[in-house]
Amino acid sequence: MKIYAKVRKNGEYHSLNIAFGFREMGAEIVKYSILDEIYDVVTSDDIVLDYIDQVQTILNKFHVRPSCEDYPAELRPFMGRRIWTDHIDSINANPEKWGVFVKPVRDKAFTGLVINGPQDLIGCGSCYENYEVICSEALDIKREWRGFMVYDELVDIRPYKGDYHYHYDAGVVDQVVEAFRTIPDRPMGCSIDFAVTVKNGKEQTVFLEMNDGYALGSYGFYHLNYAKLISARWSQLLNRRDAFDFRR
């Protein structure tokens, strides 16, 4: 088994956090600059540390197409808002649809944002593709956290945006984790994002979204556990034993 880690022109890892985690666990790490250098030699026993599109290219080589719903039905009761689908051109052409948060159905086609006018639509599509988007009611978000799930356990929860004066309700987080464990075919390595919102002067902890773990931002997550999360998800997707699962 090898860990292929993308490096910059100066030889530094793109993701120091994950690479160091695998190195501490004794993995063989192979540096590369562009995917073409390794595409033909990567096997289904390996892991590739790269951006989402590049990782999907490798997984597609083994006929694997990851599926991880952003808003699974089991977690929607904790969202604190309504969601629906639309297309970016329709949002653009209908001002009555402005004032909502949109994010692309396709992974990371653009960063989710609140649309309040045409200027906000710059970069949210092209003349060649009318992106399908998930829409939701805009929230007054005060602080956001990323929770890291590894084999059905919330290993850590890290703040990544907002005012430090606000804190999540741990009871709501526990309920979301319990509900997560009821999702069929759930990812064994992923993130669950939370936020504290304020509505009518009242604070509420809500579930924001779930993100697949095969290529995931760390937000300060401890590097050893980060590597274990990546390995857990890759092992699940490729239907193999997880060499870095030390629970047994």
Write up what this structure looks like.
This protein has 248 residues and is an alpha+beta fold. 21% of the residues lie in helices and 30% in strands. The protein has helices at 16-24, 52-61, 88-93, 170-180, 223-237, and strands at residues 2-6, 28-32, 47-49, 83-87, 100-104, 113-115, 132-137, 141-150, 153-162, 189-199, 202-212. The strands form 3 sheets. Strands 4-7-5-6 form a 4-stranded antiparallel beta sheet. It has a 4-stranded antiparallel beta sheet with strand order 9-8-10-11. It has a 3-stranded parallel beta sheet with strand order 2-1-3, with helices on one face. A hairpin with a 2-residue loop joins strand 10 (189-199) and strand 11 (202-212). The mean pLDDT is 90.
Give the SSE string. EHEEHEHEEEEEHEEH
Largest sheet strand order: 4-7-5-6
What ranges have pLDDT less than 50 throughout 5 or more consecutive residues?
none
- The percent range for strand residues is 25-35%
Estimate the global geometry from the Cα principal axes.
globular
Instruction: Please summarize the sheet with the most strands.
Output: 4 strands, antiparallel
Number of strands: 11
Helical percentage: 10-25%
User: CA-to-CA gap between the ends?
Assistant: 20 Å
